[in-house]
Amino acid sequence: MKAAVIYKGKYGSTAQYAKWIAEALYLSVLDIDKEVADHLGEYDLLIIGSPVYFGNLLLKHWLSKNKNLLLKRSIKLFVVCGSAGNQQAQDNIIRQNLHVDLAKSCEVHFLPGRVDMSKLSWFDRLMIKAAALMQKDRQKRYMMMRGYDAVKREHVNPLIKSALHYANTEKIV
Q1: Based on the domain organization, do 17 and 33 belong to the same domain?
Q2: Do 123 and 61 share a domain, yes or no?
Q3: Which residues contact 154 (CB under 8 A, 6 or more apart)?
Q4: What confidence tens digit (pLDDT) does each residue in 23-34 have?
Q5: How far apart are CA 26 and CA 89, in angstroms?
Q6: Domain of 73, in residue numbers
């Protein structure tokens, strides 16, 4: 069985999770921007990571474009976002970003992310602050305004366990 980790990130959280997953499973990390689609057919299992950026997966269009190829593979999708613990928000993200067939066929893992205000573009900072002002929950509003870091290695453990189970304890190449 051949497997790989593929991701697209913006500010580092998704890259960190991809690195931890790849290390734990002894896999290569592939750059989504470098002809990955030409090599998708080589893999039995693809672990794909994308952050949520203002409600959309950064890989939304890539997933749609490669849907037919992806449907022939086992897919474990990890989604990095601020609403990782909110089931309703998760359902909305899946519904708005994944083709219904792809949503049914892949296993989705939501992982909490990080917001480092000092690393954000001025536009992203502005948008987050505007969203924070509309937030009714005072603690969430504070977190949004100041930033947070919920990226922890242990969050990838269920995904790693699932990938190992899929491999039936065979060595993943």
Answers
A1: yes
A2: no
A3: none
A4: 999 999 987 876
A5: 32
A6: 3-113+150-166
